[in-house]
Specification:
217 residues; alpha/beta; Rossmann fold; five-stranded parallel sheet; three-stranded antiparallel sheet; 15% strand; globular; binds BIS(adenosine)-5'-pentaphosphate; binds magnesium ion; binds zinc ion
Length: 217
C-alpha cells in the first residue's frame, strides 16, 4: 500500500501515520520529521531548511524530492509506505509520480484529512512531542500520564518552534495556496478519498483504515 496522507498542519497526519505504521507494517515517511532531525544535527541541509521552516514556508522542492527519492528505495518500503507531509505542491506530486513510474508503480490512495482552522489552532497550541522518541501528545486531547513526560520513554516533552500562533497562521496560508490544490490533482487521478478529521483520534483512525481496506491492492 502506497499511501499519501494529505491535510493541513495539525490535521493529524503524524498521529495517524504512526498508528497506521504499526497496524499495516509499512513505514511512515515524514519529510517534516526528517528535516527537523537534520536541523537538530546542523547538517548543511538542516541549516538551509531551518530558515524556511521557521517562517512556515516550504523548503525548496529539490531538497524534499531528494529526501523522498532516497527514502522510498530502502528495503523497508518494499510493501509500501505512508507519506506524511509530502507531496506539498503539484511540482512535488509530479516528481513523485515520475519516480514511481520508472518502476511501473503508482500511489494507491490519497487520504485527505479535513479539519477546520479553529481546530488546527487549538491542536497546534497544545501539541507536545518527546525529545527522544518523538512520540506526539496533546495537553488536552492526548495528555501524557505524567505532565511534560513521555509515556513511552520518560523523557521530556517539547513544543515545536513553528507552533507559535503567528507561524501557524502562515503555515495555514501556505497549505491553502500550495497544498490544497493537490485535492483536485489527486481527485482527477481517481486516487482521492476525504474524511473529516475531527471526533477523536481513534474515530479518525477507524475511518482511514476503512479507506485503506477498500483500496488495498
Ligand atoms: P510538517 O512537520 O509536515 O508539519 P505540518 O504539515 O505543518 O503538519 P504537522 O506536523 O504540524 O501536523 P500533523 O498533521 O502531523 O498533526 P499531528 O498528528 O501532529 O512540516 C513542517 C515544516 O517542514 C513545513 O512548514 C515546511 O517548512 C517543512 N516541510 C515538510 N515537508 C515539506 C515538503 N514536502 N515540502 C516543503 N517543505 C516541507 O496532530 C497535531 C496535534 O493534534 C497533536 O498534538 C495531536 O495529539 C492532536 N490530534 C491529532 N489528531 C487529533 C484528533 N482527531 N482529535 C484531537 N486531537 C488530535
Ligand atoms: Mg506532523
Ligand atoms: Zn519518548
Amino acid at each position: 500500500m502506497k499511501l499519501i496522507l494529505l491535510g493541513a498542519p495539525g490535521a493529524g497526519k503524524g498521529t495517524q501515520a504512526a498508528m497506521l505504521e504499526e497496524k499495516y507494517k509499512i513505514p511512515q515517511i515524514s519529510t517534516g520529521d526528517i528535516l527537523r532531525a537534520s536541523v537538530k544535527e546542523k547538517t548543511s541541509m538542516g541549516v538551509k531548511a531551518k530558515e524556511f521552516m521557521d517562517k512556515g514556508s516550504l523548503v525548496p522542492d529539490e531538497v524534499v524530492v531528494g529526501i523522498i527519492e532516497e527514502r522510498i528505495v530502502k528495503p523497508d518500503c518494499e510493501n509500501g509506505f505512508i507519506l506524511d507531509g509530502f507531496p506539498r505542491n503539484t511540482a512535488q506530486a509530479d516528481a513523485l509520480s515520475a519516480m514511481l513510474d520508472k518502476n511501473g508503480e503508482n500511489i494507491d490512495l490519497v487520504a485527505s484529512i479535513l479539519v477546520d482552522d479553529q481546530e488546527v489552532i487549538a491542536r497546534l497550541a497544545g501539541r507536545r512531542t518527546c525529545k527522544e522518541c518523538k512520540k506526539g501528545y496533546h495537553v488536552t486531547f492526548k495528555p501524557p500520564k505524567e505532565a511534560g513526560k513521555c509515556d513511552a520513554c520518560g523523557n521530556e516533552l517539547f513544543q515545536r518552534t513553528d507552533d507559535k500562533e503567528e507561524t501557524v497562521k502562515d503555515r495555514l496560508e501556505v497549505y491553502k495556496e500550495q497544498t490544497q490544490p493537490l485535492i483536485d490533482y489527486y481527485s482527477q487521478k481517481n486516487k482521492l478519498k476525504s474524511i473529516v478529521g475531527e471526533g477523536g483520534i481513534d474515530k479518525v483512525f477507524e475511518k482511514i483504515c476503512g479507506l485503506i481496506d477498500e483500496a488495498m491492492p
